[in-house]
């Protein structure tokens, strides 16, 4: 039986390598997205605690200098929250881009795998036909020898 040789093996190797790279990039993007979400959650929690302290302090006497400092600090917290939200949006967009690239690379690998399966099946059919032809030829010769010797 002739050995099977897949002519697109180098292409399959390159595509598998690119798929692995895309998978790693996607995993990194997911990691960055999760980190950004966690940071946003921490900032929002800190902001809500700040708001609670701010509103609880309003029962005391009004002190303009202290209120100005407190409002500036609160504004900084709000700005940090907005920055974190932007970072989350950017990380999500990057994650979706990396996911699409990974899905595309995976599909390219699957195409090559399907071609290899079809090529193997074709090779197997061809080899089976050749083997059957050899058996038929052998059986024909054996029958011919019986007729000649009889």
Keywords:
89% helix; Helix Hairpins; mainly alpha; 150 residues; 0% strand
Overall description:
Helix content is 89%, strand content 0%. It is an all-alpha fold and 150 residues long. It has a single domain (9-149), classed as Helix Hairpins (Orthogonal Bundle), CATH 1.10.287. The longest helix has 86 residues, at 64-149. The radius of gyration is 35 Å and the shape is rod-shaped. The two termini are 34 Å apart. The mean pLDDT is 91.
Layout: helices, strands, pairs:
Elements: H1 9-56, H2 64-149
Helix pairs in contact: 1-2
What does the largest sheet look like? none
Shape: rod-shaped
**Distance N to C terminus:** 34 Å
- The total count of helices amounts to 2
Give a summary of the structure in a few sentences.
By secondary structure, the chain is mostly helical.
């Amino acid at each position: 039986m002739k050995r099977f040789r897949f002519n697109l093996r180098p292409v399959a190797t390159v595509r598998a390598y690119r798929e692995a790279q895309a998978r790693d990039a996607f995993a990194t993007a997911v990691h960055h997205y999760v980190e950004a979400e966690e940071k946003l959650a921490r900032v929002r929690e800190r902001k809500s605690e700040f708001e609670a302290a701010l509103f609880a302090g309003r029962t005391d006497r009004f002190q303009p200098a202290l209120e100005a400092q407190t409002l500036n600090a609160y504004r900084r917290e709000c700005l940090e929250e907005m920055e974190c939200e932007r970072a989350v949006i950017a990380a999500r967009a990057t994650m979706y881009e990396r996911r699409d690239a990974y899905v595309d690379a995976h599909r390219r690998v699957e195409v090559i795998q399907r071609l290899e399966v079809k090529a193997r099946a074709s090779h197997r059919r061809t080899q089976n036909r050749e083997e059957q032809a050899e058996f038929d030829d052998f059986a024909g010769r054996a029958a011919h020898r019986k007729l000649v010797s009889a």
